[in-house]
Structure formats: C-alpha cells, structure tokens
Amino acid sequence: MAISRVAVSGGGTIVENAIETRKLTKTFVVQRGLSDLIRRRPAAGGITPVDGVDLLVKRGEVFGILGPNGAGKTTLIKILCTLILPTGGRASVNGYDVKKESGMVRESIGLVTTDERSFYWRLTGRQNLEFFASLHNFYCDDARDMVDELLGVVDLKYAADERFLNYSAGMKQRMAIARGLLNDPAVLFMDEPTRSLDPGAAQSLRDFIKEEIVKERGKTIFISTHNLEEAEELCDRVAIFDDGRIKVVGSPEELKENLGNGSKLSDVFLHYSGKRFEERGGGGGFRPDRRGFAHRGGLGRRRGGL
Ligand SMILES: Nc1ncnc2c1ncn2[C@@H]1O[C@H](COP(=O)(O)OP(=O)(O)O)[C@@H](O)[C@H]1O
Ligand SMILES: [Mg+2]
Predict the structure, then answer these.
(1) Are strands 220-225 and 187-191 parallel, antiparallel or unpaired?
(2) How far is CA 84 from the centre of its chain?
(3) How far is residue 138's CA from residue 163's CA, in Å, rounded to a whole number?
(4) Ligand 2 center to residue 74 CA distance, Å?
(5) pLDDT tens readout for residues 230-275
(6) What is the residue range of 281's domain?
(7) CA nearest 229: which of 282, 257, 269?
(8) Strands 187-191 and 109-112
(9) What's the pTM?
(10) Which residues line ligand 1 (CB under 6 A)?
(11) Residue 16's domain is classified under what CATH number?
(12) CA-to-CA distance for 33 and 246, rounded, in angstroms?
C-alpha cells in the first residue's frame, strides 16, 4: 500500500493520513468442541468481523466507527493497535505497517478501553500511572513529572493518592485516558469509552474529550461507539459499520443531509445497513450499561459524577 506523505519544513516528512486500511480482513476460525471431534462433525467454518475494510483517517481528525454490538468494532481496533494480526489486506497507522512495523505503531499510539481489570486496584491512581510509565521506559523523575501533568490533564490530581478501587466509573475511565496519553501518542484509540458510564458521567466524559483531548491537545482520535448521539457529538466523520463492513463514511451532518430533510443518524444506519439500529445487538445502542458503575465514598460526587 502506498502511504501518503506530505513534506514539512526542514526536509522531513510526516504522513498525511493517520490511518490507512486497504481490504483489511480478519477471520476467526471457529474451533470444533470436544463432542464435535468425537462425533467427527466438520469444522463450523469461520466468522469474519472485519471484512474488506477500506479506511482513510486524516491527521487531527476525530473519526468514529459507529455500529451495534457484535459489528466488529473491537476487532478492527485490535488490529490497528497490533494486538491481533489481520488475516487479509493491509493497514498502516502513522505510516507504519501494522504487521511489519508493529513496534513503531505501538510507540505512536495510545489505547483507551473500558477494561478496569487492567489497572491495579490496590494501588493508587498515581502509582498505577507510574507503573505504566515505566513500561514505556520512562524513569523515576521523568515518569513522576509526566504522571503529575497527566493527572492534572484528566482532572484527577485531587484523588491521585486514593486507591484505584475507590474511584467511580467515570474516574476509572479518566485514568484509562491518562494511561493512553502516557507516551504522548499521535493517535488515540478509544473503544467505547463511555460504555460503562451512566448518562450524566458519559456526557461529562464526552465534554472532557472534546475540550482537553481534541481542542487542547489536537490528537487524532479513532473512537468506536454504539451510541448514535455520541457519534454525532464527538466525531468529525463517522463510518457506519455493520457485519464487519463499512457501509458509508461522512460527517454526521453530511450523512443526514444526503438522506433528506429531517433525517436522523438512526435513519442513515437503516438506509445503508437495511437494519434498524435499535434492534441490533439487543438494543445496546440506547441503554446505558450500568455494570461497573460504582460510586464509593465522596470521590465520585466531587466531580459531578466523574
Ligand atoms: N477471538 C475471537 N474468536 C472468535 N470470534 C471472535 C473473537 N473476537 C471476536 N469474535 C467475534 O467477532 C464478532 C465481532 O466482535 P467485536 O469485534 O467484539 O464486536 P463489537 O466490538 O462491535 O461489539 C463477534 O461475533 C464476536 O463473537
Ligand atoms: Mg466492542
């Protein structure tokens, strides 16, 4: 794949597109169970959650992958973050090939997920970030300064020396963002960052992402969501994604306008996928998932639920 590059002053080059994919595909082989083996049933085949995906994400853009549960969003992000290998096609992030230059890709990206278990619950927020900073090869003083700065960025300085287990869901999610920013990445991947938050905390987090991460820090963001309002509010452009395929790409306004007067993003989804958004994935697009939402002590309330 030809990587688009533009010249910058001083003779260097930077890549024009933060992310490029060409016919990117991932097929998981469905393994036969023991009883299938004993009864000599044939293999069930494969499942293809990423199916020939072509994408161009520009530098500085907030790009959203909008699709219901099971559409393949996480699988796509995992490939772009080099956590799993594609089975077909190509992808580059910041100009680096995800297969051949995975180390360079990893150095230039951050990943924010909703997996709270990836933090150490008995350590404080500060200790957690210092630990993860050491994994990025930052040593003592440098790590301490940077962690201090990031705790300020995510507005958690006031709780930095509290144990992670006492944090509310919103605070944990801010910690995940701080961890994603530790290596000052050019591209920040966010996999459904507001999934485990109640509507109020989710709105605060979206405001925070807009103000601090996009406006102040100018990061390229690749965000997956199954929430239509979230896609409209945060994204410069969205890709409607279903059954592993990109159905259409455009700004939310553009997509709605093209469909005609008064159309909503749910109408766009219906038009291009042939399915009602609410009916897919058990209607997860509209129901806040309260799993993991836990206010303890006074910490959560001090910042409006975050
Ligand atoms: N490691 C795996 N092995 C087999 N199937 C998988 C694996 N990971 C994901 N899948 C399947 O791929 C599909 C898409 O999953 P995922 O990418 O998590 O969707 P989303 O993030 O949009 O909810 C699902 O049907 C899921 O069961
Ligand atoms: Mg997912």
Answers:
(1) parallel
(2) 15
(3) 22
(4) 4
(5) 999 999 999 999 999 999 999 999 999 998 878 999 999 999 988 8
(6) 5-303
(7) 269
(8) parallel
(9) 0.84
(10) 28, 47, 49, 67, 69-75
(11) 3.40.50.300
(12) 32
